[in-house]
Predict the 3D structure of the following.
Amino acid sequence: MIRVSVTVSLVEEARGGPFVFWRDLRGACEKASALGFDGVEVFPPDAEAVKGEELRGMLGDFGLRLAAVGTGGGWVKKKLTLTMGEEQGRAAARGFVRSIIDFAGRLGAPAIVGSMQGRTAGGVDRGMAIRYLREALEQLGGYAKGYGVPLIYEPLNRYETDLANTVEGGLKVIEALSNVKLLADLFHMNIEEVDLAAAIRKGAKQIGHVHFADSNRRAAGLGHTDLGAVAEALREVRYEGYVSAEVLAWPDSEGAARQTMEAYRRWFGVGV
């Protein structure tokens, strides 16, 4: 069964980015619950930003689940990536991701590796970067298995990484890795894929999380993406995870959340 969630950012340095709610985690949970979402996806600056029991209490108060936790704070605040040239830096990046896995895993949710994958830079060519990335994902996927959750790896568009930009590219990165799934982000896919629905079908059971956004990164239905075709493809591959709104808070947070929920009702029959 598809479940629906909405994003909450706690990272001040990322303000203006594609997150529906900002800073007020309890307020975001209250609004998400009132609008009918199943869960929230949290983007924290680090694993210490929110106490796990505090978040567990909030989720319980509003009948929500934790959909996933992003690791991008490691890049935004610390400039750490899993593919940087210095082993000390890569070790620090792996440690940061492990701390997010601990935080999320105790609440039954996966961690997402997106911007922390890095890119070719500082004397690290693409082949070496892919090797570093695969080694890190294998290690971290194994660590996440201890919590009974996968590690989620997100291909990004060409302006954010040169390692994997498409679902096919992501499948090559995670090939033969243990307990690592793909995140299909419709905004990135709109830039890189020829056919979004075909890419979903190609990813099929390897897709473990979906970011539902329109072509302009506004809420679903406010751009030109054929979201009906995407929804149909998700049904065809029997996707059963979260579709999560990682979108701009346009015209404001509540407006973006309401528009997203209307889209979920239209394409997935949620709350009908």
Notes: The CA atoms of residues 18 and 247 lie 4 Å apart. The chain has a mean pLDDT of 97. The chain has one domain: 3-268.
